[in-house]
Structure formats: structure tokens, C-alpha cells
Design the sequence.
């Protein structure tokens, strides 16, 4: 089930999440509000993702669940939206 922010809430998180570089970090770093310093926050989150051992799993999870908010798998919401549009055009 997703909420109106596009965040998927699960009873049991995927096992890979425990190994993520962001595990235990404040959620507002990865789910910033869209006002200054929004871009600085997204950049900081993306820098953490760049070092993450489960980045591919995280991105796949976000794409498969159509998560439209936050930083997932080293991508911003806008980057994932563009990737979805591109994939639809290629079909």
C-alpha cells in the first residue's frame, strides 16, 4: 500500500534495507520537503547512495513499486519519473 506521498509502507521491510548505507539515518534526508534547501538535501542523500552496497536493489524496489517521492537507489523522484516515461516510449 502507498500513501499519498508515494511512500510504500510495509509490515516487513525487504531484507536488503538493513544493509543499506542509509539504514538508521534520518528519513527527512531521503524524503525532503520541496523548498530550500531541498536540492542540497537531495545532493547529500545521493552522495550517501553513491557508497551504498544495495543501490541496485533499492532502485529496482522503487521502480517496481512506482515510488514517486524521495531518494531511492541513488535517484531523485524526477530521475525516476523520467526513466518511467522513457521506458513507456520505448514500448
Sequence:
Amino acid at each position: 500500500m502507498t500513501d499519498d506521498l508515494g511512500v510504500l509502507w510495509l509490515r516487513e521491510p525487504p531484507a536488503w534495507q538493513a544493509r543499506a548505507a542509509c539504514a538508521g539515518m534520518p528519513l527527512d534526508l531521503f524524503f525532503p520537503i520541496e523548498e530550500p534547501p531541498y536540492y542540497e538535501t537531495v545532493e547529500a542523500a545521493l552522495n550517501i547512495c553513491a557508497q551504498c552496497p544495495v543501490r541496485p536493489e533499492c532502485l529496482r524496489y522503487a521502480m517496481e513499486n512506482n515510488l514517486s517521492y524521495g531518494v531511492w537507489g541513488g535517484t531523485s523522484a524526477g530521475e525516476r519519473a523520467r526513466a518511467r516515461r522513457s521506458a513507456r516510449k520505448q514500448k
User: Anything to note?
Assistant: The CA atoms of residues 66 and 80 lie 9 Å apart.
